[in-house]
Design a protein that fits this description.
Blueprint: H1 4-7, E1 20-22, H2 23-28, H3 47-70, H4 77-127, E2 130-132, E3 137-140, E4 145-147, H5 149-156, H6 158-172
Antiparallel strand pairs: 1-2, 2-3, 3-4
Helix pairs in contact: 3-4, 4-6, 5-6
């Protein structure tokens, strides 16, 4: 049975395997440039519109509750009707804004899911690389070549770059 040491590829600079680590092991030991690719995410906020609508509905409900107490004092009937109509409009508007905000979140999630294949590809490529702590290099054992810091950075940001390209393309249309 072959040991784990013999299955490691040799470093292209020093041609030894004793200091060669997987990218995950190098990142876990504190080598920041060996970080895995960023998982694509979308941060779609829905709290601001929901909070504003909630405040308007709360104000209207407060006014209706005070209106119930004001019925005994002879609050004008037309003012009562106007208050009820505004309250219903605010409640329906709050429901519509909630639906719109939820749809934005769902759309953002769907866009993120579409980016997972690019992230999976970048992660698979990242996992195939190795790090030599003796020479402080990252290398690809398939081609036996050193990977530059710029190549590592572009690999880490590949899914994020795809998001930026899609946003720019959508903004141009």
């Amino acid at each position: 049975m072959a040991s784990a040491e013999s299955s490691k590829p040799a470093c292209p600079v020093c041609d030894q395997t004793d200091q060669v680590k997987t990218m995950q092991a190098a990142y876990n030991s504190g080598v920041a440039r060996c970080a895995p690719p960023d998982m694509p995410t979308r941060n779609v906020s829905m709290m601001k519109p929901i909070t504003i609508c909630g405040v308007f509905v709360g104000i209207c409900l407060f006014l209706i509750i005070t209106l119930i107490g004001g019925m005994e004092t002879g609050f004008p009937q037309i003012a009562q009707l106007i208050l009820v109509v505004f309250t219903l409009i605010f409640i329906v508007t709050a429901l519509a804004v909630s639906y719109w905000a939820f749809q934005r979140v769902v759309r953002g999630d769907n866009e993120t899911v579409e980016l997972y294949p690019a992230w999976d590809k970048a992660t698979a490529q990242w996992k195939s690389l190795y790090y030599c702590s003796r020479d402080d290099i990252v290398f690809d054992p398939k081609t036996n070549t050193q990977v530059s810091n710029n190549q590592l950075a572009s690999l880490r940001a590949s899914a994020t770059q795809t998001i930026k390209k899609e946003l720019q393309a959508a903004a141009q249309h």
